[in-house]
Amino acid sequence: MAENSQLAGIHLILGGARSGKSRFAENRINHAGGGIYIATGRAWDDEMANRIALHKSSRGEIWQTIEEPLDLCAVLTACNHEGSKPVLVDCLTLWLTNLMLDDRDIEAEFDRLCGILPGLDIPVLLVSNEVGFGIVPENAMARSFRDHAGRFHQRIAELADQVTLVVAGIPMSVK
Amino acid sequence: MAENSQLAGIHLILGGARSGKSRFAENRINHAGGGIYIATGRAWDDEMANRIALHKSSRGEIWQTIEEPLDLCAVLTACNHEGSKPVLVDCLTLWLTNLMLDDRDIEAEFDRLCGILPGLDIPVLLVSNEVGFGIVPENAMARSFRDHAGRFHQRIAELADQVTLVVAGIPMSVK
Amino acid sequence: MAENSQLAGIHLILGGARSGKSRFAENRINHAGGGIYIATGRAWDDEMANRIALHKSSRGEIWQTIEEPLDLCAVLTACNHEGSKPVLVDCLTLWLTNLMLDDRDIEAEFDRLCGILPGLDIPVLLVSNEVGFGIVPENAMARSFRDHAGRFHQRIAELADQVTLVVAGIPMSVK
Asked: In the UniProt entry, which residues are flagged as the active site (chains A, B, C) (predicted)?
């Protein structure tokens, strides 16, 4: 399905593992001349740090990269004051992981983000893993994670202007 | 994608965990003035019993609730005689779980339900978890469960008038 | 959604476990008068061998069956010389499993297949399991498998003329 190529408002981009969801989001912003990449992943070890550095250099100079594992709302608010550059958050599920590991109040964090998003003047692309289409996990932490992720995606999708499900690198329009 | 707002025939509503599939189905029947809610989940403990009671009261007086973990076919047949109220079955995968734990003949139960559904005069919304998009589970019971669920969904979808996949609370029309 | 019934080019058919993806692909080729079935699954034991034999006989005489767990590229090239019969590969994820168990260079095998596919003169339907929509697996081999599968699907989808996601036996058009 064709995607509207114009960047505007809030766009939730869901996909499975290695589905091409991040690349799809990056390409959308590349076509708009670049933007701000908010990386929520943490560099746990040298291998991960190298991968992050490699990704950063591959995006090129039209991108500014901000690494923020937890305080996504503050970064989004700051970006909103910098002008009209579009923002890519990659990704919400890593952010959720970090919040859970840091023992944050998850619902309060979701409330905060969902309170901020509608007031932003910049296009925001939010990438996230769809993780709810498998068998109930035996691990309690995993069950909690996918429950949080599912509820969170519903809330973001409700306020989003566009929702896309990426399958094998191809966007399917959901909303 | 827009959904036909009129309730008629058999509507299979698939979705992942916390995808908003039940809420979507409830809203469809709320707009039609209410209906009969067939809850297949079992109250294993006080917490679950409380959740069921909470859900029941939140649906309000336009709903009648019937709890039936196993004999779904008898309940559907009885509802069909009561008049034209639409029915919501929530959900098929919990029903399948109960059938497996009760050591029933699964294929015979599927045959029975698929034999009854086309003859019903009331709109029936069947909610079920799509569980087949993950890695093959290591647990044999889980593998058997997802095989049964997959085959069952195919059979219901074939005789259904509508099939919807709910992603992040948003309906995608499948059939 | 309606599917173009004419067979041409490369068609990637994704689906979950027991989603009806193989049956969908078989029906497409049945309507075209039959074809060549390339089975990548291995008969590990008598039960599996019996299932394969049963499937083979159920497809009937309009099908030729070739069993090839590893050297898919050689078989496709050979089929291309035999004339214009359409080919069904069932399935890519079993092929990937066999490659991993045989300790092959996965990326080199993907390169080889993606190099061959665009030059084939016959319609090729490639069936594969979408496995990336669940929780991150705890098993490292499973994580590697789904990473490979995801990247592989992206590459095939990019060069494919059609991509279909089968949900409960019903095709959803992706590309």
From this structure: 55
Q: Which residue of C has its CA nearest to B157?
A: C168
Reduced to 3 states, what is the DSSP secondary structure of residue B69? coil
ipTM, two decimals, is: 0.93
Nearest to A88 by CA among A36, A50, A133: A36
Mean pLDDT across B5-29: 93
Give the domains, in start order, of chain A with CATH numbers: 10-173 (3.40.50.300)
Q: Is B104 annotated as a binding residue?
A: no
Do the annotations mark residue C21 as ligand-binding?
Answer: yes
d(CA B81, CA B120): 9
pLDDT digits (tens, 9 = 90+) for A77-112: 999 976 679 999 999 999 999 999 999 999 999 999
CA distances to A40, A88, C131 from B137, rounded to whole Å, are: 29, 33, 11
User: What residues of A are in contact with residue B149 (Cβ under 8 Å)?
Assistant: none
Instruction: With beta carbons under 8 A apart, name residues in chain B contacting A156.
Output: 168
pLDDT in tens, B121-134: 999 999 999 999 99
Cα dihedral B115, B117, B121, B122, rounded to 10, equals 160
Q: Determine the Cα–Cα distance for residues C26 and C147; give it in Å rounded to an integer.
A: 27
Say which residues have a Cβ less than 8 Å from residue C53's Cβ, sequence separation at least 6: none
Distance, in Å, from the CA atom of A148 to the CA atom of A138, rounded to the nearest integer, reads 16
